Amino acid sequence: MMSNFQEMTVVQLKEFLSAHRNDNEMFSEALGELLSRNPDRQRYPADMSTEEIGQVISEKIEQIRKK
Questions:
Q1: Full-model pTM
Q2: DSSP 57
């Protein structure tokens, strides 16, 4: 089964990822497409402390409130 991920909406890609989470190849391809749609996204290190994660979440909430 081949899918044209470029034609899928973000919602469709997320649904596909959920439905195919055990198919490593398809999941990887769909995730790659989803991530490629926002190349300017902020990346965070995997070893952040709980306090650092909380700070990031607080900052994001504040940014949303200001919009």
A1: 0.57
A2: H
